[in-house]
Amino acid sequence: MEKQEAADKIQEVKQYLTFTISDEVFAFDVLKIKEVLEVSKITKVPKTPKFMIGVINLRGSVVSVIDLRLKFDMEVKGFTVDSSIIIVEVQYEGELMTIGVLVDAVKEVVKLEAHELEAPPKFGMNLNSDIISAIGKKGDLFIIILDIQNLFSEKELSFSKQEDISMLLDTIKQEKQAENKE
Predict the structure, then answer these.
(1) 19-45 pLDDT tens trace
(2) HEC secondary structure over the chain
(3) In this structure, is the dihedral angle defined by the CA atoms of residues 30, 35, 40 and 45, taken in order, positive or negative?
(4) Please, what are the domains in the chain?
């Protein structure tokens, strides 16, 4: 019986990577995160939503970068030494899609037990409650735990599809080369 209790307790504890946007603390489940990067050169892509600030080269792959400040209609802020890109994976059209999420600062990995999590309020939130999986409580700190899979709509994910972005960047490159020849 003790082994079962220990197994249940392990399943009750989850780890979350916390990060800040403005003065708010958010988190993603660590199992959905591939890595955390310093902000590097971000190439802007025309005709994409405002919050999709561009793409980065991640070991030869084109990865869309989403600015959560813009996605959440928060005040725009320039990059700082603490700005980071969290690389996450989401399901789209039956495939795993890699997306970079720009945040003000990555803080730490926290462990939260089931009793430290509450369902998000149904009203009074500035964010769509479907994108929030829970509100974590760690001492006096509230942590808004985001549901990565629900964070982006199907339409938004379609803008981030790697093949489409690669084709668009190739077209832009070809147009610039043609302009330079003239």
Answers:
(1) 999 889 999 999 999 999 999 899 998
(2) CHHHHHHHHHHHCEEEEEEEECCEEEEEEHHHEEEEEECCCCECCCCCCCCEEEEEEECCEEEEEEEHHHHCCCCCCCCCCCCEEEEEEEEECCEEEEEEEEECEEEEEEEECHHHEECCCCCCCCCCHHHEEEEEEECCEEEEEECHHHHCCHHHHHHCCHHHHHHHHHHHHHHHHHHHHC
(3) negative
(4) 2-181 (2.40.50.180)
